[in-house]
């Protein structure tokens, strides 16, 4: 079982936020663990399905990274 520490950041409104870097690391770690389990034949999951699911998780992590980069690199006042 994987364990990844995830810091929670409270907002003034009482919501909890998770840093994007932690979310993307978690998505990639889950995808990697799925592949490792399939390669080691530790699961009954269909390998093509696992490959497709890991691709989705990695693309989602990439999308989050790209959105964060775009937001961080935009000039103040551009609406990001």
Question: Which keywords apply here?
Answer:
mainly alpha; two-stranded antiparallel sheet; 80 residues
Task: Report the C-alpha radius of gyration, rounded.
Answer: 16 Å
Range of strand content: 5-15%
Label the structural class: mainly alpha
- Unreliable stretches (pLDDT < 50, length at least 5) are none
User: Total number of helical segments?
Assistant: 2
Distance between the termini: 37 Å
Number of strands: 2
Q: What is the percent of helical residues?
A: 55-70%
Strand order of the largest sheet: 1-2
- Name the overall outline: elongated
Average of per-residue pLDDT values: 88
Q: Largest beta sheet, briefly?
A: 2 strands, antiparallel
Series of secondary-structure elements, N-terminal to C-terminal: EEHH
Write structural notes for this entry.
- The protein has 80 residues and is mainly alpha-helical.
- Helix content is 59%, strand content 5%.
- The protein contains two helices and two strands.
- The chain has helices at 20-39, 47-73; strands at 9-10, 16-17.
- It has a two-stranded antiparallel ribbon with strand order 1-2.
- α1 packs antiparallel against α2.
- The mean pLDDT is 88.
């Amino acid at each position: 079982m994987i364990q990844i520490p995830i810091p929670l950041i409270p907002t003034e409104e009482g919501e909890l936020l998770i840093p994007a870097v932690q979310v993307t690391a978690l998505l990639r770690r889950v995808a990697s663990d799925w592949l490792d389990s399939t390669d080691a034949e530790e699961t009954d999951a269909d390998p093509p399905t696992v490959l497709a699911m890991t691709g989705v998780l990695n693309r989602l992590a990439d999308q989050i990274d790209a959105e964060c980069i775009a937001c961080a690199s935009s000039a103040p006042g551009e609406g990001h």
